[in-house]
């Protein structure tokens, strides 16, 4: 909003030494933008440490996950989102709201609180229900409690995308379609995936919605270890 910077400059003048405004689309904010105003976004425990926002509902899920992935200094997010987005953030395996987004977000943060906000709290009232959620960062780890590196996290996310590419299909069929669509040689996909299932100790006849986060971490590790051509197809 081009009118708001002037209002902020006036109302926040007493605290200007501790305030910086970045006039930019939130989806396009980079680490360089934050460093330019004196922040250290890639340093855990640095600043900024909190994301607090009433986010535009069309991009809310994207912004929250993107910031947690890219800015290590961010330790929590307290945001108002559409109820359905809050459901996806808080979903458990086996529920209809559980999907690849839930798995990816869960690698970086855990739900610490939530409350409903009805249409009557807005003017004019919207046609959707809302919720305020609080997420707190957590360190992604493997089954032994060893912190996951960035590549291992990306691999787990890739397997979540593959598992939910065709939600009603089995893991084997959904992943086959996903990897083939990313350039993996069709003749190699089935054999490479078979190696992944064995290495992860996973039954590929299950559907993606039945796997918990720890199992996706195992699948990601197996992909990196036994995936062969699939690793390149997944951009890893």
Describe the structure.
By secondary structure, the protein is α+β, with helices and mostly antiparallel strands. The chain is built from 10 helices and 4 strands, in the order ααβαβααββααααα. It has helices at residues 4-11, 31-36, 60-70, 83-90, 100-106, 150-163, 171-180, 186-200, 213-226, 229-233, and strands at residues 50-54, 76-82, 109-117, 130-137. Strands 1-2-4-3 form a 4-stranded mixed β-sheet. The radius of gyration is 20 Å and the shape is globular. The model has no long low-confidence stretch (mean pLDDT 92).
Q: Kindly, what is the distance between the CA atoms of the first and last residues, rounded to a whole number of angstroms?
A: 38 Å
Q: How much β-strand is present in the residues?
A: 5-15%
Number of helical segments with 4 or more residues: 10
Overall pLDDT confidence: 92
Features of the shown structure:
236 residues; alpha+beta; four-stranded mixed beta sheet; 4 strands; 42% helix
Give the gist of this structure.
This protein has helices at 4-11, 31-36, 60-70, 83-90, 100-106, 150-163, 171-180, 186-200, 213-226, 229-233; strands spanning 50-54, 76-82, 109-117, 130-137. It is an alpha+beta fold and 236 residues long. Helix 6 (150-163) packs across helix 7, helix 6 crosses helix 9 and helix 7 (171-180) crosses helix 8.
Task: Itemize the secondary structure elements and their pairings.
Elements: H1 4-11, H2 31-36, E1 50-54, H3 60-70, E2 76-82, H4 83-90, H5 100-106, E3 109-117, E4 130-137, H6 150-163, H7 171-180, H8 186-200, H9 213-226, H10 229-233
Parallel strand pairs: 1-2
Antiparallel strand pairs: 2-4, 3-4
Helix pairs in contact: 5-6, 6-7, 6-9, 7-8, 8-9
């Amino acid at each position: 909003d081009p009118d708001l910077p002037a209002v902020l400059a006036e109302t926040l003048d007493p605290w200007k030494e501790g305030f910086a405004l970045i006039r930019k689309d939130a989806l396009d904010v980079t680490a360089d933008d934050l460093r330019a105003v004196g922040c250290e976004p890639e340093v855990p425990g640095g600043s900024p440490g909190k994301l607090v926002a009433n986010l535009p509902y069309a991009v809310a899920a994207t912004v929250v996950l993107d910031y947690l992935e890219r800015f290590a200094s961010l330790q929590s997010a307290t945001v108002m989102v559409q109820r359905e987005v809050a459901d996806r953030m808080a979903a458990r395996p086996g529920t209809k709201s559980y999907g690849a987004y839930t798995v990816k977000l869960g690698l970086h943060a855990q739900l610490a609180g939530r409350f409903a906000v009805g249409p009557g709290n807005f003017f004019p009232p919207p046609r959707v229900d809302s919720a305020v959620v609080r997420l707190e960062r957590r360190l992604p780890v493997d089954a032994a409690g060893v912190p996951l590196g960035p590549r291992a996290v990306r691999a787990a996310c890739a397997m979540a995308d593959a598992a939910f590419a065709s939600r009603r299909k089995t893991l084997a069929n959904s992943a086959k379609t996903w990897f083939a669509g990313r350039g993996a040689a069709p003749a190699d996909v089935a054999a490479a995936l078979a190696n992944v299932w064995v290495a992860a100790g996973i039954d590929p006849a299950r559907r993606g919605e039945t796997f918990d986060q720890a199992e996706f971490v195992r699948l990601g590790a197996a992909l990196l270890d036994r995936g062969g051509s699939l690793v390149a197809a997944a951009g890893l």
